[in-house]
Specification:
- With 137 residues, the chain is mainly α.
- It has a single domain, classed as N-utilizing Substance Protein B Homolog, Chain A, CATH 1.10.940.
- Helix content is 72%, strand content 3%.
- The longest helix has 29 residues.
- The protein is globular.
- The protein starts with a helix and ends with a helix.
- The model has no long low-confidence stretch (mean pLDDT 90).
C-alpha cells in the first residue's frame, strides 16, 4: 500500500502541475510509472485498486479534506494555514486525510506511510508536521 500512497501523491502532483484531468493523469501514470526504472531503481508497481481509491476519494472530497486538515493545522499552530503550504505538502496531507477520515486502513498504518512519503521528498520538519496533522484528525 505504501507504493500506492506514494504513487497517488505523485499523480496528484503531476495533475496540479500540468493542469490535466485526473483521467488523463491516471492513464499516463499507469503507462509510465508501474514497473519502470528511475535512476537505476525499479519502481514497485502500486496496488492499482488502492491507488485509484485514493485518487478518486481525494478528487471527490477535496474541499472537505482541506477543511479538516486546516482545522487540525489551526489546532496545532493557529497562525499556519493549509493554503499557504507548498502543493506537494498539501497533497500528502490531503491523501492522508482521506484515508484517515474514511477509515480505509488502521490510522497508525496510514499515518506512518504518509510520514514515509513525506520523508521521500523532505528532510527536515515536514515529515513530523505530516505526523502531527494526521494524528490530530
Amino acid at each position: 500500500m505504501t507504493a500506492a500512497r506514494l504513487a497517488a501523491v505523485q499523480a496528484l502532483y503531476q495533475q496540479a502541475l500540468s493542469g490535466a484531468s485526473l483521467a488523463e493523469v491516471k492513464a499516463q501514470f499507469l503507462e509510465h510509472y508501474a514497473g519502470s526504472d528511475l535512476d537505476g531503481d525499479r519502481l514497485v508497481p502500486p496496488d492499482e485498486a488502492h491507488w485509484l481509491m485514493v485518487l478518486d476519494g481525494v478528487e471527490t472530497y477535496a474541499w472537505q479534506l482541506d477543511q479538516a486538515v486546516d482545522a487540525a493545522i489551526h489546532a496545532a499552530q493557529p497562525d499556519r494555514k493549509l493554503e499557504n503550504m507548498e502543493i506537494l505538502l498539501r497533497l500528502i496531507l490531503r491523501c492522508g486525510a482521506f484515508e484517515v477520515l474514511h477509515k480505509v486502513v488502521e490510522k497508525p498504518i496510514v499515518v506512518n506511510d504518509y510520514v514515509n512519503v513525506a520523508k521521500a521528498f523532505y528532510q527536515l520538519k515536514e515529515p513530523a508536521w505530516v505526523n502531527a496533522v494526521l494524528d490530530k484528525l
